[in-house]
Write a structure and sequence with these properties.
The protein is an alpha+beta fold and about 700 residues long. Helices cover about 25% and strands about 25% of the residues.
Length: about 700
Amino acid sequence: MTGSVGAPAERREGREKVGGTARYAAEYHVPGRAQAWPVPAAVARGRVTGVDTAAALAVPGVLAVLTHENAPRLAEPDDATLAVLQDPRVPHRGWFVALVVAETLEAARAGAAAVRVDYDAEEHDVVLTASHPGLYVPEEANAGEPGLREHGDPDGAFDSSAARVDVAYRVPPLHNHPMEPHASTARWEDGRLTVHTSSQGTNAVRATLAGLFGLPEERIVVTAEHVGGGFGSKGTPRPDVVLAAMAARQTGRPVTVALPRRYLPAVVGHRAPTLHRLRLGADADGRLVSLTHEVATHTSRVKEFVEYAAVPARVMYAAPHRRTVHRVAALDVPSPSWMRAPGEAPGMYALESAMDELATGLGMDPVELRVRNEPDVEPDSGRPFSSRHLVECLREGARRFGWAGRDPRPGVRREGPLLLGTGVAAATYPVMVGPSTAAARALPDGTYLVRVNATDIGTGARTVLAQVGADALGVPLERVRIEIGSSELPAAPLAGGSSGTASWGWAVHEACARLARRLAGRSGPLPGRGIEARADTSGTADAESDRARHAFGAHFAEVAVDTVSGEVRVGRLLGVYAAGRILNARTARSQFVGGMVMGLGMALTEGSTVDAAFGDFAESDLASYHVPVHADVGEIEAHWIDEDDPWLNPLGGKGIGEIGIVGTAAAIGNAVHHATGVRFRELPLTPDRLLAGMPGPRA
């Protein structure tokens, strides 16, 4: 072994990105390429009764206007959000009702502004409440999780508990907003379709397009060479790729569709709002007897997507009596979808805030309360954990943070107008892995080529996979080249669920190990094309496990609350993680820190509101939807403990892209309570909410 795995190797594509030569989906300047601009619906529910395209077609440079009356017909998709321009219905505001194709982006935008659409508007319902009459318990919350799980008698056990917490929390709609908006460039040649798209998985895009357009998959090539972030919103195909392919077929020209940022909240998914009720019952020593986590959320009338925010309560703490239930209402809203740590991020905010409230009520240290409720097996399933080092994360985090010197009394630390406080929260995220294929080739010049259809969405996948290959081959890292990001490469699953590296890396490791064994028995020069070995982890990577496999972590936060302005400043964030074997120390720290900053945004700045009158999200761009910037982030540290888990995969990794966001918002919220003595239960913790909630003089 060369020792490549674990080393802080620099990103292989870093120079291309900072130098501006890395090409993204909208940057493929194919000869004759046209640009397209969509027209969003202006009503929250109804039907299109007429589209006047004359003024748009009169704009210089406009080539065509696609509507439901003339757009190519598609086969019915599995994902109904992709049935664009197929009929006159309008299921929510922002649904695309036309597409203008032009010689230039400016002409397409002007043409879109000139399209006139008439509607037959209908009454709409877009407001989620905990008592909404349309709420129902789904058979499954997403990812195959049951909508309801119950053990024992949680209500009776709660009523007889010595210590009780019965509280409600609200997490608003949240939006992914990757740096690169969703974009696709498509062209047809001799009945073949080539697409460059911003996606977390090109095999899924190819399969979807094949079904929609009635083509064999081998006649479609989809590439995603570089992807400027996704956070789940690019995990499945989105309307941009379908519109680009439709427009290219209609016009006979290559066409790029780059969605304007302000359109993204309505058409590429969002984290649905979640209304939480937590009921925790404990004995006098702080041991949980009863745990109930109820979640209400919304989905669209287009497709069902249920944010599974009660699922973490099935994993975290020992309680003999428990209920976790999801209720969902189908409203006239855009379709929610995957967003970084779906379920876990909002669910752990509520659960870890409630645990802090229980600790306060018991007069117990919140770290010790969590340690006291550490389970021997996964509470919901009864399966043993493959590894669980949450207690070690809490202890190590407390040591590094200086938790032992904390005055537990809330509202007592003050520096002028600033109230200071500290908080803690735990984190968890499931280990997921899927089957993948990969190929490794030894070349006569002494280098090696590894090919796998992985997608690098900014995580450093190219670099880490090269490290995995170098270790398995026993060669220096610089002798291994990587090809990723094309459906022409060996098939691989998408980058999502923190499963990418574990899935692709397993296949890369196996292919390279097989190649190394073949080479070990050879002598003499290699043939001109080299020697190749392939691997397919189907049947092994997707085999059922009798172990509960999760990553864990602990977050600590220190905040200053300005009693005059209501502003919250996070001076310190510290995370400690147990995430299996860390494959690249540099990129891992970047992923942890990135997740923590996203959690900071969830706590303090990010949030969207549904306009009841118009049926859309009021915060539709980065001027109104506030993500953290450098000035919002103080001292931030990410650490991990060495974890050897033999029940995972040959790499021993658990995935790190999402656990950084889980628990961060709760740690910050708990710190705000410690600073002010006031418990705020609705995110984000904006100055107006804090000023309204803090009693007494503010200076």
